[in-house]
Amino acid sequence: MLKTRIVTAMCLLAVFLLSLFALPSSWFAIFIAIVFLIGSWEWSSLSGFTSSYQKLAYSLVSICIAFFIGSYIGLWPWEELAFPKLLSIFSGAALWWAIALLWVQGYPSSSILWGNMISRSVMGLLVLIPSALALVYLHQQPYGDWLILGIVLIVATADTCAYFSGKAFGRRKLAVNVSPGKTWEGVLGGLLACVLLSFFFSALIDMHLWLMILAVVIPTALVSVLGDLLESMVKRHCQMKDSGRILPGHGGVLDRIDGLTAAAPIFALGIMLAGNPFS
Q: Angle at Cα 76 formed by Cα 72 and Cα 78, nearest 5°?
């Protein structure tokens, strides 16, 4: 089992890095669309759809909505970006994750608000679409491939260091009804490790170190934890262990990108609000 997990992880890393650094932005957007489709298919199961026709319909509707929004803000067909529209999308994503935080904190009582099929279907759109748009947007910018790699490093660092910090020092539970193993001490350890990454970002783009830490890195790291908790909450509600079985030893695609779905739009929003060095 461990060998399978390692081999799968190495293959995923190779595909991701090759797509990130070798593909032009137009092809990278197609790569994101493929991942988006798989994620939408998996979320359709979390929504409560059972037949393949229902799941396919949900996935196609989802990507059509994403394409329409992307065209509306100028992400494609590679037109000039409408900055205010883009800012409103990412601001809306931040509002959504604030609502998600309340639902996670209030679980299981909060399930009365989102436990039905329609609410969970809409939830999937709010989780997946802003993150896909953020990744496509960032890849079009100078140093975009390195910025996306930076988001992945923040998410991975926050998750990995939180695990080891929690094991060593964890006492106070973060969300016992959603993920009993997570602790506040673990989250703090992950945040401290992510702060060290800020030196990389501040050197990469023209942004003051403390502004980078407070406006970009810390919010991104915190919301990545929320993305993990939200998917765990929905899976617990649906009595599902994994979102899918497409990745041997790892479960589904959503199980691997749950933190990234929350982190990407918040990272992009932080960059834009901190001065938008790409404008």
A: 125
The token pair that represents 116 in the structure block: 């039905």
Query: Does residue 278 fall inside a structural domain?
Result: no
Give the pLDDT confidence of 145-190 residue by residue, as tens digits: 988 998 999 999 999 999 999 888 888 999 899 998 899 999 999 9
The string of pLDDT tens digits covering residues 106-124 is 999 999 999 999 999 999 9
Residue with tokens 């209030």: 106
122 Cβ contact list (under 8 Å, min separation 6): none
Crossing angle of helices 25-47 and 2-22, rounded to 10°: 140
Instruction: Pull the structure tokens for residue 105.
Output: 């904190």
Structural domain including 230 reads: 2-273
Is the full-model pTM beyond 0.90? yes
Q: How many folded domains does the chain comprise?
A: 1
